[in-house]
Design goal:
single chain, 512 residues, alpha+beta, 2 domains, 51% helix, elongated, transmembrane
């Protein structure tokens, strides 16, 4: 009996088969990623358009989100390089169940919670971005499986830690300037570096510390070489640069005795070989539902531009009023409203009393607060509650009124349930094309000379408590549904006088 040996497979044929298998894996993964990204963009199309408008047109600091995406990608790449081969996932029922639960959670962020925060609270928190991140996480579970998605659990936590509310609280706590932004982003970069190089706790700690040191050095160099560098430079360069340097050193150190190629092994098959129709249908339906959910339409307060307007304090005191005491200045508001911003406070007293405003015809007292800044959008981002201790007070819905020369203003009532006081506030903003000014006139229903007025104060921690209350209980806890505008006419008359006094100086300066 003759035995014929089987022909040996040539190395070239084996190499071609390996390349074809690798291309097949890449194509399948690429299609899944493209579908997931496209559906995420579709689901949050309105929200992404709003965010782009804030960044490009209004000058918001949300451009740091782009840097966060780069950091998350770098961290995920580091995790991918550490992947080992694992068994394929056959039963996908768990993936679909968990994916549906995560999608329901994203609906809560995109619909219920986001709509609890309107106006400035929405601009500050942007919970729709948390909804987007949760939607993307649920999509990864549906497209790639729960086990592969959870392999990147630290990357998902990184995205939550980089949410706008966390970023802005840290930014304000450190001073609110460009250097503070660089330090906050360096901390996020150190977190991403720890994820990327952290094969164990020791290597993660080393990566975190090393990236932090490199980031601080980059901030110091930028500050010394170009102090006036744009905010994005402070946000991007230290964070991305530190992760790149630390990641590259760790990579070369790891590969010094092996191949320096990024993938020195064959590509592993995806844990989920095929995407089930049910999982894909859940993702598509979730995207359509999210797209149809109500979303925030932000209306920015208009800033009329008046050529020649002086936005520096103090205000010109109208003839019917006199100033009592010096003008007080608070420079710390620059943390909120940008470098050079100043809050100035003037005590104004009526020249003569009027029984229409006090039964004994005593001269009424008003507080005139002004804030000057180069960034008018920040008046919407950080409203009055951020510059006064108003924790626990209730606010009426704003009422739009018109002042002379077509200046739009807002009238509000604030109830202080602790002191049993009612404040009537008239505020407006205007500018000269280079700087903007916010003017707020305060009255109180206590007509005594020593009556209490809210004092300018940084209240970040109290604002957090207020935000937490609104999240759990809704904005009814801070809303006054039956406001009593006790001093409506008083503040309107004062606002008319203040506007006329400021614009009369503009007209005088324009005369030859």
């Amino acid at each position: 009996m003759t035995v014929t040996a089987a022909p040996e497979e040539s190395p070239d044929a084996s190499s071609d088969e390996s390349r074809r298998a690798g291309r097949s894996i890449v194509v399948r993964l690429l299609w899944r990623w493209l579908a997931l990204i496209a559906l995420t963009v579709l689901a949050y199309w309105h929200n992404l358009g709003q965010i782009a408008r804030e960044i490009v047109i209004l000058g918001s600091d949300l451009d740091y989100i782009v840097v966060v995406l780069v950091l998350a990608t770098m961290a995920a790449y580091g995790v991918t390089l550490r992947r080992s081969e694992e068994r394929a996932i056959r039963d996908r029922q768990t993936d679909i169940i968990v994916g549906v639960i995560v999608m329901l959670l994203s609906f809560c962020f995109a619909g219920a919670l986001t709509n609890r925060f309107t106006g400035s609270l929405y601009l500050l928190t942007h919970l729709d971005l948390l909804g987007l991140w949760t939607f993307f996480f649920g999509g990864c579970i549906l497209m790639f499986g729960l086990r592969p998605a959870m392999r990147y659990h630290w990357v998902w936590l990184f995205g939550l830690a980089a949410s706008p509310i966390v970023y802005r609280i840290a930014l304000l706590s450190l001073g609110g300037n460009e250097v503070a932004a660089g330090i906050v982003m360096t901390a996020l970069g150190a977190f991403a570096a720890a994820i990327a190089v952290g094969r164990d706790r020791r290597s993660a700690l080393v990566g975190f510390v090393a990236a932090g040191v490199v980031g601080l050095v980059i901030i110091a160099v930028v500050r010394a070489v170009r102090p006036s560098a744009p905010l994005l430079v402070y946000q991007a360069l230290p964070a991305v640069g530190s992760v790149f340097v630390v990641g590259l050193i760790a990579y070369l150190r790891r590969r010094r005795r092996t191949s320096p190629r990024p993938f020195d092994r064959p590509l592993y098959e995806p844990g989920v070989d095929r995407v089930k129709v049910g999982a894909a249908a859940v993702l598509v339906v979730s995207a359509v539902i999210t797209l149809l959910l109500p979303y925030q339409r932000v209306v920015v307060t208009p800033t009329p531009t008046i050529a020649g307007l002086t936005t520096r304090a103090p205000l010109i005191v109208p003839d019917a009023w006199r100033q009592d005491g010096p003008t007080l200045r608070y420079d710390w508001v620059g943390d909120f409203y940008g470098p050079g911003a100043v809050l100035a406070r003037q005590n104004l007293l009526q020249q003569t009393g009027d029984v229409a405003f006090d039964k004994e015809a005593r001269p009424r007292k008003l507080i005139a607060d002004t804030i000057e800044t180069r960034y008018p959008f920040r008046f919407d981002l950080y409203p009055l509650v951020f510059t006064y201790d108003l924790f626990g007070d209730r606010f009426s819905a704003p009422v739009l009124v018109m002042l002379p020369h077509g200046i739009p203003a807002v009238l509000e009532v604030i109830l202080d349930d602790t002191r049993y006081l009612t404040y009537t506030v008239l505020s407006w903003q205007w500018g000269n094309g280079e700087h903007a000014q916010k003017v707020a006139l305060w009255s109180v229903d206590n007509h005594e000379p020593d009556a209490y007025f809210p004092q300018p104060d940084q209240t970040i921690l109290k604002n957090l408590r207020q935000l937490f209350n609104v999240t759990l209980r809704g904005d009814a806890v801070i809303r006054d549904d039956q406001p009593d505008f006790k001093d409506r006419q008083l503040v309107l008359d004062a606002g008319r006088d203040v506007v006329n006094a400021q614009l009369s100086r503009v007209r005088r300066e324009d005369q030859p």
